[in-house]
Amino acid sequence: MWGKSRGLDPGLPPYPLVRHLLDTAAMALHLWDVFLSENQRVRIAEGMGLSGGLERARAVVGWCAGLHDLGKVSGFQFCSQRGSRYLGAELGGDRVVMCVERFGHDVAGAQGVGEVLAGLGLAVGGEARAAERLAEVVGGHHGRFHRLEDGIAAAFLGGAAWARQRMAHAAAVHGVLGAPAVPGVFKAPAAVLVTGVVILADWLVSQEDYLRRRQRGLEPVLADHFRRSQREAAGLLAGAGLAPVALERKEFAQAYGIRGEPNPLQRSVMDELRQAVGEGGRGGILLVTAAPGDGKSETALEAERILSEAFGTQGYAFLLPTMATSDQMHGRVAKALMRQSGEDAGLTLVHSMAWLSSAYADGDLAAQGVLTCDGDEVGEGSGRAEADMRPQRWLRGSKRPLLAQFAVGTIDQALMAVLPVRHNALRLLALSGKTFIVDEAHAYDPYMQVLLGRLLNWLGAYGVPVVLLSATLPASVSDRLVKEYLQGAGHPTRALGKRTFPAPYPGWLYVDGASAQCTQISQRRRTQQAAERGMDLRVGVEPVVHGAGGGARTRLAVLERLLDAVSGAEGGTALVVCNTVGDAQDTYLRLRERFDGRSHREGGSVQLLHARFPGDVREARTREVTEGLGRTGPRPLRRIVVATQVVEQSLDLDADIVISDLAPLSLLLQRAGRCWRHEKYWARHGHPGGRGRPGWASGPRLVVLDPIAEGGKTPRQWGEVYSEHLLSVTSRTLAGIAGGTVSVPGDVQALVEAVHGDSEDFHWDTPGGGAAAAWTAHKGKEMAERSMAGLLAVPRARSVSALHDLHSLPGEEDEWEVSTRLGADSVRLLCAYVHKDGRLTLDVEGERPLPRAAAGGTMPVPAVREVMRRTIPVRADWLKDADPDSIAPPESWTQHPMLADLRVLHQLVQDGSAQAVKVGGTTLRLDEDLGLVRK
User: Fold this and answer.
1) What Cα–Cα distance (Å) separates residue 919 from each residue in 716, 860, 875, 880, 900?
2) What angle do CA 277, 280, 286 make, to 5 degrees?
3) Phi and psi of 303, rounded to 5°?
4) Rg (CA), the chain
């Protein structure tokens, strides 16, 4: 029986199935020994009823891996003519009968496992249900669990001779593994982790180079073959960048490259959290609350040291709301690991465009193939081709990240673990071995909060330590997240319903997974943190009118007045945050004309940053803005940065004044966190280049441009960016701030609760009025989002009966078909240039022609990267009225997995400038200074 054929040496027989089963079993045992954390091993053993019997649990995991491709002893053998030539006459003669209907070998394996286990005397009495679970694991090794009761045509499995072959293969593996027994129980959460181990082991030993090498020198005795597989497992794991590395833990300042001592919040975690955690048991959840700029990231990494040691996890996943914030955090974590001798540790960037980052060299992305199936065994067409591509992207470059010891990226990649997509079991395996850190926990809408809660439920079941960081998280949200975690850890819902888990602000709250006991930051440290990091933020409200006709109250006129001081001899820095890209572009043009006249390329003092620049331009602009307004400088004499929401989170900026369009209050506080962010640090260590604050900046100041303050309306161009109800409540709350001053951190939580708290009350003074309609729309949208997430998410960990519950939605769901965020679908747009001679180029100068793909859609990685780095994410509905052919990618790209999905905007070049392209009722044009302009 052959196991692997395609891509191997055609002059030799295909790779035998029994050898591949032994390879996978050996790798699974090595993963147990080296890759899995102590916590994961304990949870798997516990789920098998083998607490204290880790060796027995290890053997069962190897046994599952050794059975994973048993379904290839079936009609699968006839998928390859070359492979089937090696079948004996008795088996080969069944070709016609067995190929009437085709089924996947994963499904066939699930059907055949019960038969071989019974034949080995391993599925009797109480073991029968556990044997069914083992069959589910075997059936799920391609990333999707199946209903065992659905069955397959008996003819596909063959007759008695085929049954004897399945028994012979299973018996051979069983004997080499030391005859492991089937456990008495096999709970679903443990089985999910075991499935992840089987998938990973299968992929690691299915790499072309490995199989070719083994194919050329097969050991005559299976036991010798197995021993060699065990010896070579370590090299395969290390080659994939998945071998864990022990860090040399350094002192705080040395580890993070920070001058001075830890602040009181950080010190309290270092000194007090260890006692709260105790000896460790079933994990715990830590909520850290502090104002923007108070060092929450370093606090989380210090907490990770303690939690990983206590709970037996290795490494961490540090997850954030956006790709931009993930890119920046990846750089910070990389430096922290380097300072702790972690240069050999697996550190990866996790988001959909991570492979474009300079963090990945071209060689990292050009991986060898992983041979996961042979032939068109199910006839799924392009879907099968895409499934075949995925393993190499998991093990190399952009898809390995979550498996690596250290991962930094967007929360979306983690939330996919609790959506019914392929390989969600592998994501749960990847996350359950690490400490799980979520930054900006306030930044997620109700839909994402439900998904995050569901993920925390699974992590609670696995005893994974969790750290949530936030500057403006409503108590109702944090309470729900803590309860989801504890419910996963086994605490009854009814008992949790009687409790609340209020977190101090600033400070931290730790809730133990086993006992649900709470511990808070000490009052002494909390008081010290508030005193050391506190500031009085002056908040001013400027009523404005959008558009013409407002006179002195016109928004742009008010902005000019507020920024006049920056143009004076003392200069200064200002951050202007707009709610839409269009407003940001118009604002930038007006301020550039008023204060400088020079473009970005010419070194103008007015800069523009938003999400509608090509990727390479946005990366460069983010870096320039961060350097100019960062902690270390050099600080410019004057700088006005006009930006959108991209600066709200995790960007380390310090401006003398922040001016913002009206937004929900929690976001205004986030934006205000970019005002005088480093003042106390500079007071101790000196301002960058010796340049202090200008005289006009006497203290931190936030100015809110409020279009509804005096009976106005929300600007039409804002659309549905923010809830009208939240904007109205924020406007009223700002008007009521006593003395126009917000004490940070003292007033922050109360303000957040006033606007974002989970209150169902509404003052029905004007029934049927605009305020009532806005409140109803807001609550209705929240309810709809939570309901949608609840329908899509997999069940809670302790509610899973059959593993198919993790893929219970109809159809072949995959990672691109189920979204972690609600909202308009997006596509990536490439703005190309059409020259008079018909040439199509990537640049307006005409020097970079569009690369052509070779036959089959292949293209060198550098060429793909060059194209993709110039793309821009846009709403798909912007292009709905365009002629599909007019925005289609070049013909040679249509078979490429990345380039085929692009939309291409063909801009005519006249007199050296790109002309706008009409798309439906609007025009689109990529401007060098403004980014993509839509009119």
Assistant:
1) 21, 32, 13, 9, 21
2) 45
3) -65, -35
4) 30
What's the sign of the alpha-carbon dihedral 308, 311, 316, 319? Answer: negative
| Dist CA 907 CA 918 (whole Å) | 10
| Cα angle, residue 171 at apex, residues 167 and 174 outer, rounded to 5° | 140
Q: How confident is the model at residue 801 (pLDDT cuts 50, 70, 90)?
A: very high
For 595, the 3-state DSSP assignment is: helix
3-state secondary structure of 704: strand
Q: 721 near 592, Cβ under 8 Å? A: no
Quick one: DSSP state of residue 506?
A: S
Contact 451/482 with Cβ under 8 angstroms?
A: no
Decide: 654 and 678 in contact? Cβ < 8 Å: yes
Residues, the chain, total?
935
Tell me if the bond preceding 506 is cis, omega within 30° of 0. Answer: yes
Q: Residue 760 carries which side chain, given as an amino acid letter?
A: E
SS3 at position 519? strand
Look up residue 867 and give its two tokens. Answer: 């194209």
Residue 567 has pLDDT above 70, yes or no: yes
Question: Quick one: how many helices (H) and strands (E) in the chain?
Answer: 34, 25
- Picking from 55, 98, 370, the residue whose alpha carbon sits closest to that of residue 239 is 370
Alpha-carbon span 7 to 369, nearest angstrom: 9
The answer, yes or no, to whether the previous bond of 634 is cis (omega within 30 of 0) is yes
- For CA atoms 329, 334, 340, 342, the dihedral sign is positive
The 10s digit of each residue's pLDDT in 84-117 is: 888 888 888 888 888 878 888 999 999 999 899 9
Residue 500 DSSP code = -
Strand ranges, E, within 127-283:
none
Nearest partner of 67 among 222, 185, 172, 163, judged by Cα: 172
Q: Tell whether pTM > 0.85.
A: yes
Spatial separation of the C-alpha atoms in residues 930 and 729, rounded to whole Å:
33
